[in-house]
Amino acid sequence: MDTERLGIDPSGIGRNDGEEGKEMKAQHQPNNDYMLRYAEHLMKEAKRGDGYQVVTPKVLVDVDNLRLNGKHYGTWRCSMEEHVLDNLRGVLNGPRPSFVVETDASVEEIARSMAAEEKWNEYDTLCFHTILNHLCDDLFLHYSKRRKETSAKQLWDELQLRFGAHESRVQKYMEFDLLEEEEPMWVQAQEMGSLFFYLVRCNKMEIDEEFHVNAIISKLPPSWEDVCIELMREEHLPVTKLIHRLIVEQQSRIN
Q1: Where are the beta strands (DSSP E) in the chain?
Q2: CB-based contacts of 7: which residues, under 8 Å, 6+ apart?
Q3: Where is this region: Disordered (predicted)?
Q4: R_g over Cα of the chain
Q5: CA–CA distance, 88 with 98 (Å, rounded to integer)
Q6: pLDDT tens, 175-211?
Q7: Which is higher by pLDDT, 99 or 218?
Q8: How far is residue 42's CA from residue 44's CA, in Å, rounded to a whole number?
Q9: Which positions ≥6 away from 8 have C-beta within 8 Å?
Q10: Which of 191, 188, 171 is nearest to 179 (CA)?
Q11: How far is Cα 102 from Cα 203, in angstroms, rounded to an integer?
């Protein structure tokens, strides 16, 4: 401990056989400067490994392969958790802890709370910038402007909400099946269409209607094979016309 910075006499006696020290103790209560110096001492001890784990993110893979560009979010998240954020999960797994102490807390308790809060803030800042550095340029510029009001967990959760939900919709569209025992075929086709147009809108793509029409036809159940063949022979078959044909076919099967 740095006894000079804390104002402590190493001998334990002080001047004038300790009388002067007793006088000062009676006249002066511990102040904020003392607490700050004590907190600084605790931080030094923490950096030496006394009670805290020094965080060093481990990057085991090529950084360029870990930059999120909006696609393959699931793969990116798993790679980040396994290779980059392994030692920083503490700030991502729950809300920010409270560092408030009781009004009658001792100087040591207040100083320890201050040191713990500063250490947590260091971890949060390190985690936030680590995530930022693994985003593509456009996403980096977008999220780096919000550091003052955004924690690492808020950034992590927002990326999950924005790209995780999007990726699940892509998978749902690709695995969508039109089932005869479910709702009417045209209703299911419209639901599939809603997924498709959502993906088109999010990716800012030009609408490839022919691709979507062929996808619907390919997912018709085996009992609709004759209808599928007829639809495939159509030279021009927009989605609206396809839905109409499915409605007509559905009604004919009911009658």
Answers
A1: none
A2: 34
A3: 1-27
A4: 32
A5: 18
A6: 788 887 778 888 889 888 888 887 777 665 566 788 8
A7: 218
A8: 5
A9: 1
A10: 188
A11: 52
